[in-house]
């Protein structure tokens, strides 16, 4: 083993540990890793920057815009509600939901589909007295099923496609992955409506848990007549840095102010709403001129009216909020909303809100002004599980243009008239020229953190390949599976990829495994497509944890799930996907 190989392996091992421990955002960790390899001379600037011109990465960026236009057009608003039906036969409703969702996610980004339909499904379940926990994990899994069906189903497929083209190969065709993923998806759907449905728990949603426990963490106080607090700001009155309580709202003459600024001066009869640890309420009671109401029965609905609204938000993997307390994040002043409560692993965190260290998957109950949803609907820090509003007026012209553009883009790529990059570029130009989407609107939908992660991960993959580290690892893998031949090699590649996907990110897993798989294919003298298809399926087929795939994370809190729920339901599904993929890949590309 040379020094260069050892150095690369140590750096990548450190990167994996940092990703697993979530010490920072994934895109920053991967960017820092690439920077270390560049500055140490392991990769040249040209090779380090290759990922930023990779057509797979650029296609992902363009498809973000196309998916954003579809979401913005309102085309999908009523689809799932109609598909679910009456709900009298829950398994049939589940099947009727999974099929169209899988079909949509074959051509659109999975994340906005899950964000869009989570509140729709929760509302549908609530109206029929059905536990949403029976439908939300299947919603996430359905998008994963669909994402593996086509070249554009997930960014991972496009990343591998781009890597293949960098190496002078043709890349995937539009429906090439469906040879494996369609049978696997059908088996997955059958599993979910039979065994999976039975295993799915019946749980209260985070919304129900917040509402039922409101009395345990909400309290209110009033500024008494002639109080010495009158004329003082919130800060001067000592109401900003209380030991266990957090001021979330002030009501004055019927007008509500959410995310109360420190500089607001108090007046007689102001009503103040606090959240936090009620055992510390004595701190409020000791403030002269402040009358604290105890034994009240405040409900969440009491906190909102025309000027304030409650919204649920799920902290994302890419969030700048993670590993810092709410107070350190200056959440209230940064976002213009107060955190009422935090839900994690099927229970509310019973601490002062300002002292809670946020983690990916935490569900935040936010109280903000009415424009909060519009301002932060595309935030990278959290996914907003928006309340259901009355249907908006849909612009039929934009819907028709968007739908036609999407179909034409798919056909152009499917029949090899254009490459996927060219077809998606043409689609975006069409959307701009027809004013279906604006440049400002497009910018909101592009996930720059995902693009940075992909581009940097490609540079790391090049370092693995050029130093010989990938060939060394490939040799070890082949030795481990020597008695099982090609089928053993494919199995180990699939298993390691899916393991990486569960603990780091799917794109990083795919990029790291690509050069290793290419080296294995060369050493075994078999078609590398066998490995690339396996990696593409394994990197997306993430069912066993809520942290492995972002759609699993989105439904984690809103469904009231525990980490163990994903293990019980997802591990058998992971095994099914592994068996189906390895068998079909072996007989199609190896034998």
Automatic annotation (TrEMBL):
Tell where it localizes. Membrane
Please list the GO biological process terms of this entry.
potassium ion transport
Q: Which residues form a coiled coil?
A: none
Q: Which UniProt keywords apply?
A: Membrane, Repeat, Transmembrane, Transmembrane helix, Transport
- A single Gene Ontology CC term: plasma membrane
Q: Which residues cross the membrane?
A: 5-23, 29-49, 56-74, 94-118, 139-160, 172-194, 406-433, 445-464, 476-497, 503-522, 529-549, 569-589
Q: Which PROSITE patterns match?
A: NA_SULFATE (PS01271), RCK_C (PS51202)
Q: Name one GO molecular function term.
A: monoatomic cation transmembrane transporter activity
Q: How does it sit in the membrane?
A: Multi-pass membrane protein
Q: Which Pfam families match?
A: CitMHS, TrkA_C
Every copy of the RCK C-terminal domain together lies at: 205-290, 298-382
Q: Does the keyword RNA-binding apply?
A: no
Q: Which PANTHER family match?
A: BASIC AMINO ACID ANTIPORTER YFCC-RELATED (PTHR43652:SF2)
What name does this protein carry?
A: SLC13 family permease
């Amino acid at each position: 083993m040379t020094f260069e190989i050892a150095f690369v392996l140590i750096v990548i091992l450190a990167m994996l540990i940092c990703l697993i421990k979530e010490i920072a955002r994934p895109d920053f960790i991967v960017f820092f890793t690439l920077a270390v390899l560049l500055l140490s001379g392991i990769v040249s600037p040209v090779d380090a920057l290759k990922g930023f011109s990779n057509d797979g990465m650029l296609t992902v960026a363009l498809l973000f815009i196309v998916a954003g236009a579809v979401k913005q057009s309102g085309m999908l608003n009523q689809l799932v509600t109609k598909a679910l039906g009456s709900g009298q036969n829950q398994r049939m409703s589940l099947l009727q939901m999974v099929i169209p969702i899988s079909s949509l996610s074959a051509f659109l980004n999975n994340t906005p589909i899950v964000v869009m339909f989570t509140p729709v499904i929760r509302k549908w379940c609530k109206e029929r007295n059905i536990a949403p926990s029976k439908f939300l994990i299947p919603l996430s899994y359905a998008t994963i099923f669909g994402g593996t069906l086509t070249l554009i189903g997930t960014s991972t497929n496009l990343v591998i496609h781009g890597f293949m083209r960098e190496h002078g190969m043709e890349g995937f065709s539009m429906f090439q992955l469906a040879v494996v993923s369609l049978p696997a998806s059908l088996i997955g759907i059958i599993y979910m409506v039979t065994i999976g449905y039975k295993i799915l728990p019946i749980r209260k949603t985070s919304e129900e848990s917040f509402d039922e426990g409101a009395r345990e963490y909400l309290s209110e106080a009033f500024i008494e007549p002639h109080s010495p607090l009158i004329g003082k700001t919130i800060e001067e009155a000592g109401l900003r840095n209380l030991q266990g309580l957090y001021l979330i709202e002030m009501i004055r003459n019927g007008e509500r102010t959410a995310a109360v600024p420190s500089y607001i001066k108090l007046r007689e009869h102001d009503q103040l709403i606090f959240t936090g640890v009620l055992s510390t309420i004595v701190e409020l009671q000791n403030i002269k001129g402040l009358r604290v109401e105890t034994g009240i029965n405040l409900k969440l609905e009491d906190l909102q009216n025309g000027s304030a609204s409650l919204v649920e938000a799920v902290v994302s993997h890419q969030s700048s909020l993670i590993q810092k307390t709410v107070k350190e994040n200056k959440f209230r002043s940064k976002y213009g909303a107060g955190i009422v409560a935090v839900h994690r692993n099927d229970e509310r965190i019973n601490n002062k809100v300002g002292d809670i260290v946020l983690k990916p998957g935490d569900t935040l109950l936010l109280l903000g002004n009415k424009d909060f949803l519009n301002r932060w609907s595309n935030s990278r820090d959290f996914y907003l599980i928006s309340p259901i509003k009355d249907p908006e007026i849909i612009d039929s012209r934009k819907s028709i243009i968007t739908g036609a553009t999407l179909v034409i883009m798919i056909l152009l790529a499917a029949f090899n008239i254009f490459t996927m990059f060219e077809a998606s570029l043409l689609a975006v130009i069409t959307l701009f020229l027809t004013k279906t989407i604006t440049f400002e609107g497009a910018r909101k939908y592009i996930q720059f953190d995902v693009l940075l992660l992909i581009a940097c991960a490609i540079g790391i993959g090049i370092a693995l390949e050029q130093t010989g580290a990938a060939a060394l690892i490939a040799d070890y893998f082949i030795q481990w599976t020597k008695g099982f031949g090609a089928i053993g090699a494919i199995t180990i590649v699939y298993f390691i990829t899916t393991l990486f996907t569960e603990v780091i990110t799917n794109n990083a897993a795919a990029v790291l495994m690509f050069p290793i798989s290419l080296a294995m294919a060369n050493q075994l003298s078999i078609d590398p497509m066998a490995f690339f298809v396996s990696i593409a399926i394994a990197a997306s087929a993430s069912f066993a944890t809520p942290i492995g795939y972002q759609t699993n994370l989105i439904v984690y809190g809103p469904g009231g799930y525990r980490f163990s729920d994903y293990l019980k339901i997802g591990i058998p599904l992971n095994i099914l996907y592994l068996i189906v993929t390895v068998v079909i890949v072996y007989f199609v590309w190896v034998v």
